[in-house]
Amino acid sequence: MRKVAGRIGLIVCVAVFLVAVWNIVSILMSYRQGEQLYTETAAQYVQENTPEQAGETEAAEAAQSSAAVPEAVETPPISVDFDSLQAVNPEVVGWIYCPDTAINYPVLQGTDNEYYLNHLYDGTYNSSGSIFVDCNNSAGFADANIILYGHHMRNGSMFAGLEKFADQSYYEARPVMWLLTPEGNYKILLLSGYTTSYDSDAYTIIYQPGQVMEDYLTQCLSNSDFTAQVDADGAEKLITLSTCAYSFENARYVLHGVMVEAGE
Q1: Which of 37, 186, 217, 227 could serve as 179's disulfide partner, Cβ 3.0–4.6 Å?
Q2: Phi then psi for 40, rounded to 5 degrees?
């Protein structure tokens, strides 16, 4: 009887072990699938710009119009083929990029804040999800504070790197992100980052600049882990990036930046 019980116990232990292994393998495969898709997407729809290329384009346009070469305008480091991306999914509304990080992804906006938690931009079910705009934000990045969400993936993808900005030297090496959209491009001047609760005032959607926005900015700056050399006075548009953090239950790490239209 004891031998039978021992065998049953061994079988149960082996079964539990195999299930655990399968779960781990499934998670790793899911991570790999999401990472591969976004890598392929960036390679297919994103082109790196160089200062030399930008200068040649401006000179050629000026020569064709018999005009003087215009003063240099800061060009985003990448260009995105939004027509082709939106043919895959019309809910693609932008592309977020931060040099020297893993952040190089399409930005989605759906009708709720659930779908893109576990769907890639092409509609594939995957735990990596997508980077997406809060569904309560106005379309076209028109609001004064726009909120973007992304997972904190264990493989370092998506928005896992946001917490690294808590280090002053890390921020100083990467003080700028870029948000490209079909309508126009924005330079994001990072100004604040900190850990907060999922239901804190950091998630306030602000539709128009004004006193509410000024108070919000003051609070963001007072909470920041790093000191930014950014003059936020008179800022008309902010962006808030959010991901999970694990210092306490329902913790989040948020990164705020001032959005400035490229060329201003």
Answers
A1: 186
A2: -65, -35
